[in-house]
Design a protein that fits this description.
- The chain has 471 residues and is an alpha/beta fold.
- It is built from 13 helices and 21 strands.
- The protein has helices at 19-30, 45-50, 52-69, 85-109, 168-171, 188-199, 219-231, 321-335, 365-370, 386-391, 428-435, 440-444, 455-465, and strands spanning 9-15, 35-39, 113-121, 126-131, 136-146, 150-152, 165-166, 180-184, 203-208, 235-238, 242-247, 252-256, 261-264, 266-269, 273-275, 308-310, 350-352, 357-362, 375-381, 397-404, 410-420.
- Strands 1-2-3-4-5 form a five-stranded mixed β-barrel. The chain has a five-stranded parallel sheet with strand order 7-14-8-9-10.
Length: 471
């Protein structure tokens, strides 16, 4: 238990130190609130220590490896690259540790009182902290934010042992890159792991029960990802169900419904995450939990108990760190008596860091038509973009969906969907367009720098006006 301060009453208690929790603590403390943060592990949560940050660091290693392997295409001759996985893990740990120290220092600078332990909600906005050192303390506050986050889901018949069967938690501690690996689940996390391991030399098979990998992503974007995966010999099997596996001395045999089997050295179970609500002691508190374990909240993240909020992966909203940030700010503004605008979850930015990258916001073409919109669509590929050709990365496309006006012209932008080079860094224009209900005409007159990757977005917008420059 931290001995930063002997006090036990605060303006706000935040239970959970992941992105949503520490964002609430930092944003609230910058406004002068006296805040206690309860965290049983390390500030930063899954995102920093076992999720977003280490995953993207390993994906960057894969990017560097891929670039060196293709260097001869640029006239740069070198021997074939070899991977020193131990060095990769050291660099990953260094990045994570540096960010953790920075976050810890910022919490201290903002005078946030950190309690090292597990917090359970009590009555009258109290929290009992079972300290990691064996101590127990009861603290109270004018308000409580629950932000205990989530953990990986598992599936029957695949007990996680950290050696053959892994979840995202264990992947970051692998001592070597497996020669043959199956990724069960073709969502965002599964595709990131599959892409990374394939680029580093693994023979990878994605096993997805649904008809399509990357559920919820526009089908044209998914198609470009599949083409890239196929070109890199990454095997994608959709509509398949795993029934179990039979471990051996150095690997395992996965059994599929229908009798087919697959021999691999490792299995990564990537079937989503579940809320970590059971540790909060919510029974009898008045805070409601649904059948999936999510804490029930309204559009302002308020629970059924006055003065108690819940944010982040603990509630049934998109499990994204930046959504957790937005929800934290939403709650703090309410505590400060400021205007609070609910998060529009239908217009959240999504980024997937496989190769090619995927980024999107707003409606897919299919969803827009199902919602009753008559739409106009513009699609532009990277083969016509000079910067993409220069860097040698032309897989993917930019697709924009706009509402069709009665006169047939393109009006309001409903969705922007991208795959390709650094699209996770390019979504900003599309995000603003969708969230500001901008029209094609509003955007078309803006100038895109040349040569730049962003020109493809500009060209796609121009295409919706009926006139283009380069296509």
């Amino acid at each position: 238990m931290s001995d930063q301060a002997p006090k036990t009453h605060f303006d706000l208690i935040v239970v959970g130190g992941g992105p949503a929790g520490y964002a609430a603590a930092l944003y609230g403390s910058s406004a002068g609130l006296d805040i206690a943060l309860v965290e049983k592990d390390k500030a930063g949560g899954t995102c920093l220590h076992r999720g977003c940050i280490p995953a993207k660091e390993l994906l960057e290693t894969a990017h560097v490896f891929r670039t060196v392997a293709d260097a001869s295409k640029f006239g740069v001759e070198s021997s074939a690259p070899s991977l020193q996985w131990a060095t990769t893990l050291e660099r990953k740990a260094s990045v994570v540790d540096g960010l953790f120290k920075g976050l810890s220092g910022l919490l201290k600078k903002r005078k946030v009182t950190v309690f090292d332990g597990t917090g359970k909600l009590g009555s009258d906005r109290s929290v009992t902290v079972a300290g990691n050192d064996g101590s127990t303390v009861r603290i109270t506050a004018d308000a409580v934010i629950l932000a205990s986050g989530s953990v990986p889901r598992t599936i029957p018949g695949f007990d996680v042992d950290g050696r053959i069967v892994l979840t995202s938690d264990e992947v970051f501690e692998m001592q070597s890159v497996p020669g043959r690996v199956a990724v069960i689940g073709g969502g965002a996390i599964g595709c990131e792991f599959a892409s990374m391991l394939s680029d580093l030399g693994s023979q990878v098979t994605i096993l997805e029960a649904l008809p399509q990998i990357l559920p919820g992503v526009d089908k044209d974007v998914v198609s470009t990802v599949l083409k890239s995966f196929k070109k890199r010999s990454l095997d994608v099997r959709t509509g398949v169900k795993v029934t179990g596996h039979s471990p051996g001395a150095s690997g395992t045999t996965i059994e599929l419904e229908g009798g087919e089997t697959l021999d691999v050295d490792a299995v990564i179970v990537s079937v989503g995450r579940r809320p970590l609500s059971e540790s909060l002691g919510l029974a009898g508190t008045g805070v409601n939990v649904d059948e999936r374990g999510f804490v029930v909240v309204d559009e302002l993240c308020r629970t059924a108990v006055d003065g108690v909020w819940a944010v982040g992966d603990l509630i049934a909203t998109p499990g994204l760190a930046h959504v957790g940030y937005a929800e934290a700010i939403l709650v703090i503004k309410q505590l400060l008596g400021e205007q609070a605008v609910p998060v529009d979850y239908s217009k959240v930015a999504w980024c997937i860091y496989c190769h090619p990258e995927v980024a999107f916001v707003g409606m897919t073409e299919e969803a827009a038509r199902e919602a009753g919109f008559d739409v106009v669509v513009s699609k532009h590929r990277w083969m016509g973009n000079s910067r993409a050709l220069i860097i040698g990365d032309t897989d993917g496309l930019v697709k924009i969906i706009a509402e069709k006006r009665p006169d047939g012209s393109a009006g309001r932008v409903l969705g922007v969907h991208m795959s390709g080079p650094w699209v996770t860094e390019q979504l900003g224009q599309g995000y603003l367009a969708v969230n500001w209900d901008a029209t094609v005409d509003d955007i078309a007159h803006f100038i895109q720098p040349h040569p730049s990757l962003s020109e493809t977005f500009g060209e796609a917008v121009l295409g919706l006006t009926g006139r283009t420059l380069n296509s």
